[in-house]
Each structure stands twice: as structure tokens, then as C-alpha cells.
DNA sequence: GGCTAAGCGAGACGGTACGTCCTGTCTTCCT
DNA sequence: AGGAAGACAGGACGTACCGTCTCGCTTAGCC
């Protein structure tokens, strides 16, 4: 993944030997995500199953990723679809759109993947660090811009603690996903959270 | 653990044979927590390591817990110290005390344990469900009571969405712990979040 | 193998834990020999195939033998049936009996095993050394005794070079086995070699 | 090798494209022999190691030889120096010269190669057959001629069993090489064997 | 005080997955 | 077209745990 990116950035140093198969890359990532969704967690899937489902030899997997964890983090990165950059209506509309996107994601297949993976993360600090850098931060940045713009337009209070607000919004929307599967979040959770955030709870 | 509780509830049905060693129970749970902190995640520790560190045979572990996950959830339950029931000052003071307690917990050893475990949780829904029922919900209930009292005393707005507020507070305080270890949360995060929650962000 | 022998020599120090299964020992050695005969050479068989055919887990094999080579040498040792101690008739009769036994062995299943294995032996000098010590030398000793007795009884010349004679007899009977499978040795090879050895070739 | 021979026999059919590099041929065979001596047995060396040591791509090896075994047999053929055709003195002198040559060969580097290879031979019958035809038989033929001449000159007995005598001589001289490396054969083994063969062991 | 039943440390059992290495084939660019 | 490089599918290697089982030995309560 990262190598592919790196290589494609510069105009191909023309390495000798047979080039790596792009189909294999895709098949492996695809198989990984499927298994990650079906089974569960880093522990729940096996490299051998990944290779088998991808129709690929084990060595083809290990040539690209040094171990299971690194494969999984790259597979997850493949779904890091950025949050929809909000149209730019009222701050409330923008925040609501973002909150609902996060809420939807929670139940989506990849949502589960992320959580399954992040659990065992203390063991792999770089895994977590990279995930933060490449996935989490860009998303917060979008919210941060919406909030800043709100301050400028006067929609939000001038002394707003932007980071605390981000933390609350993101926290509320993602924490819920840890509830038992049965406990579906209420449909209107996004709206209720955004409104509570806007108005505050003080009388 | 659960069996121990069950047994200690009724006055000993007086089973025949040698009774189970209480020292073994403790040693196993202790070893589990130590390994959970040192290593990481459900996947990171092995039953053999637990037994070895506890100075106990593997069968002594398996006699008490049917598998790794059940052992771990019981070990975690051993640290479910309840949040300090707030003294009952102003709502702000109470919320702040709770928030700071959660914040402190995040960096504590058991804090890490919880997160390490919750990751691979999709595979073990009952683990997660039980954890929610026995650990998470009681804690939310404490916050819930503080908020309800605030509404009654008029400190908080009458149309407050209690659940949304809980979600935001808990989410903000716990999500942070997933940042890379280096990224220590700001000292005053609790205060900033509580104030932002109280006042709202709208102008 | 060696461990079993060692243990059974002394009256069991009563080691803790579940004792090793004698059935597994047998099944593994049996499977090894079968595969050694069917397939060929150290390289031709796999530990996984051995375990599978023996109906045993791989770890059960590796608990007893540290690697493929050590397993194979022990399997071969299991067939080191000693040469029939000759009845003690005339020297010619005794030598003929021994030569014919060696000749028969050549075509037998285990004969092939030995050769298949001895090939890659430079890599495992201890394998070869042990095989010599435990299998080859005892056999030569039998021939040596027959020749010495012949000298004493006056059947053989007094100035006989015993070791050279052994080398010639054993060499002639075993070298042949390296001929292509098609080239069956003549029925009467043993007799012809013994007589040539007795009479010499000089006029 | 075989292809090279075939091509060099006829005056080059003038194939299109770049001709094969003679340097590559040599480098590959050289590398094979070196590894065969250092490591051990057909199983002990890898095509990748051969190609790497020869400074050659794997495909360059596989273009010339279809698999490991064929490469090895050709590499060995490169050392099949014929036995010195004996000067034609007394039969004893001739046999002694041949025996000593065989004895010397045993300790030489290629000696080891041959044995290393012959071990795993059941799996590759054609390898063995070819080796017999091209290396072993020519050598026996030399001994055979010496013995026949001895019969004609009256030095050897008229009713000599030529094949049995060959078997004993060759067997005695080559079998020894299977002893552990430490056990060097006695200096005078050749002489003792030849004399024992000549005089017989009977009183 | 002996009997009975369960607990105990130890470790073997059949399995599964790991990550490494090598085989023999293929695909690319360079000469 | 040959050559060097190296990717490809496949499969065995030897290791580490899983959760179960079998040993011989305590350690209790009940007779």
C-alpha cells in the first residue's frame, strides 16, 4: 500500500524483475476485509485464510506485509473514506451531516473492522499512531474547520473550546458503537447530540 | 469468579472433596491483570503464561473459567471500582469530579486493560454485553442521577436530553485514551469538556 | 527412543505429569518407516505426513524428536535386527549364512530405508556416527568372531587380515544394492563371494 | 551439459537470438560442486543458492537443466576422472594402483559429492542408472580387464569368478567412506585388501 | 483413622496458525 | 532471443498456544 503510493509518486525507478501483481494486492486486501467482517478481530482471522480466499500463495502476502497486524492496518486504511466535506450551510446542518455520517459508519461493515482492530492496539503502538495520523486526524480537521467557520460567522460563541467540542462530538458518536450489537443506537442520536452540544445543558 | 460469588452467597452446599483453593483464584486473577497490562489485548496473553505466572497448573485455571475470554472479563470486573458517588455539591462540581475520575482512570493500569480487551469484542458478544451491564451501566447511572438532580434543582435546563449528554461526556473522556501513548491529554481536559457541555457552543 | 530406554532402565523416577503415550511412539516410528519406504530419502518425507499417517499431532512428534533427521535415525534403529548369530558349523557355512542374510536384507523394505537415509549423511555426522556405533559395528563383530574362530580351529590361515576380510565381505554384499533397481543381483552372489574370499584369486 | 554436448557435436545449427553464455554454464556447475561439498546431499543445496553463488538468475539455471537432480548429476559427471589405466605390470601391482586410486578418491572433495548424491537415489532412478552407466561401469571394466589378463597370464586361477572379485574389491574400497569422518581408513588398507583377495582366507 | 471424592501441579495430547524458506514457473526490462 | 532480477502458487519447516486429557499427590468432610 504505502509502497505502492511511494512508487507511484515518483515516475517509477524501473526496478528489475517481475513487478508485483496489482490484482494480488487487491485480492488480498479484499479478502482481509471480508474475513475481518465475517470473523472478528486481529485474532479471528488467519493469514492462511486470507491467502486462500484471495487465491494467492502465503508468500505473496508476506512479501507485501511483514505480519498480520500490518496487513490489517493497511486493509483498514483502504476504507478510510474521508467524511463528506460538508456543503457549507448553517453550522448546525454541517455538524448534523457529519454526525450522521459517523453514526452510519458505526453500523457499516468497516466500522466494525476498525473497532475490532483498535482493541489490541497497545501492542502495536505504531499501528495505532499511523491510524491516528492518517485516518482520525484528517476527520477531526474537517469538524475543526466547521467549528472555526462557525466562530467567524458568529453562529458559535467566540470563546468556544474547539478541541473539547470535537472530543465530545466524536466521542459521543463513536463510543456508542461499543454497545452490544443488539442495542441499536436511536435513529435520532445524531440530532440530539448536536443540539445538546449547541445549546449546552445549563439552564 | 462468578462461581465464587454464587457459592459465597448461599451458606456452602458442602460439596464433597477438596475445596478449591482461594489462593489459586487470587493468584490467577492477579497474574491475568499483570499480563494484561504488560502485554496487550486478549490475543496478547496466553493461558499458559497466566498459569505459569500464577504458579498454578493449567487445569486449575480451566476448572474455574471455560476459556481465555471468560477469565479476562472476570479479571477486569475485579477492577470495576465504582465511580466516586459525587458529594452532591453543584452540578458542575459533581460532573467535574466524575470527569476527572474517568480521566485519571484512562492512564491507570486497568484503564489500558479495558481498552485492550474491548477491542476484540465482536467475537465475544456476551463478554461485551456482560461488561456493559455490570460495569458501564452502573457508571452511567451515576452521571444520570447527577443530571436529573440538576434538572430538578433548576441548575440544568428542563428540556435536557439526558442520554445525549451522558454520551457526550463519557465519549469525550474515554475516546481520548485511544490516542498514541505519547499524546497525553491536556491536564484540564475534564474541566474544558464539562464547561463546554454546560454552556453549549452556540453563540 | 533413547529416552524410553534410559527411563525404563532405572525403576522409573516417577516424573510428574501425564506420561508419554507408548502408542504414539510406535505409531510415529511405524509411519516414518512406511513413508521412508514408499517415498524416498530424508527429503522425501515430511513431518506433517508422518504425523498425519500416525494419527498424531505434530507437536507429539516434535516433543520426542527435535527434527526430521533425529526421527529418521531412530526409526531406522528400530529395524536394526541383529544378524542371525551363526549356528557354529564350518566357517564357510557360517559366512554363507551371514552373506545371504545381508543379501536378503538388501531387497527388503528396510534395506532401502537405510540407503535412502545414509545418502544425505554428511550433513548430519552424528546421525551417521550413531548409526555406525549402534548398527554397523555390532554386525561386524559377529563376522569378526566367526573369522577369529576359524583361525583358532585352523580352518582359516593364521596370518589372516581379519579387518580387510570383513571389509571385503560386507562391501561386496552391500555395494550391490546401489545398482539400479532393475539389476537384480544374481541368486548365488553370496556363495560366489564367500568362495572367492576363501580361496583367493591367485593361482 | 547434455544440451551443450549435443550442440557442440554438430557444427551449430545457427539458432537465432543471443547465444547462451558459456561463462554461465561454468559458473553454475562450479557453484553446484562447491555447495555440494560444503553443504550436503541433494536436499542440502538449493537452486536459489546455486544461482546466487554463480551470480546468475534462476531462469538461467532452469533453462539449462530441468530440475535440481539433473543439474547435480551433470555437475558430478564433470569430475568423473577415469581411473588411471594401469601400466600393465604384475596383476598385484595393477590392482594395488587401482585400489589406492579409489582409496584416495574417497577422501577427495568429489568423493563426498558422489556419496551425498547417491543417498537419495531411490527417488531418482534414472539419475542412479545414468551414473552407473557412465561412471561406475567404465571403472569396473578397467578392473575386469586386469583380472582377465591375470587369468590369461596364469597369475590368477583359471576358475576365477571375475564379477565376485570386482564386487569385493570395489565394495571394500568404497564402503569405508561411509564411516564417520573422524575414522580415517588405515594407510595400508588398499594393500591389505588386495593381498587378502589374492591369497584367500582359507588355510 | 480410614474412605471417598474432588482439587492440585505437571505436562502430554490432537490441532491450528504462525512466519520462514525453497521449488519450479512466470513476467518484466535490459543487452 | 538470452540474461538478471524477482514475483508467483504451493507446501514443509519448526514454534507457540489452544483447550482437553491423564498422571500421582494432596486435602478436606464423613463415617
Automatic annotation (TrEMBL), chains A, B, C, D:
Cleaved signal peptide residues: none
Keyword Transcription annotated: yes
SUPFAM superfamilies linked to this entry: Homeodomain-like, Tetracyclin repressor-like, C-terminal domain
Biased amino acid composition, Basic and acidic residues: 1-15
Keyword Chaperone found: no
DNA-binding region positions on the chain: 46-65
Gene3D superfamilies given in the database record: Homeodomain-like (1.10.10.60), Tetracycline Repressor, domain 2 (1.10.357.10)
Annotated stretches, region: Disordered: 1-24
GO molecular function, one term: transcription cis-regulatory region binding
Positions of the HTH tetR-type domain: 22-83
InterPro entries hit by this protein: Homeodomain-like_sf, HTH-type_TetR-like_transc_reg, HTH_TetR, Tet_transcr_reg_TetR-rel_C_sf, TetR_C
Keyword field: DNA-binding, Transcription, Transcription regulation
Protein name: Transcriptional regulator, TetR family
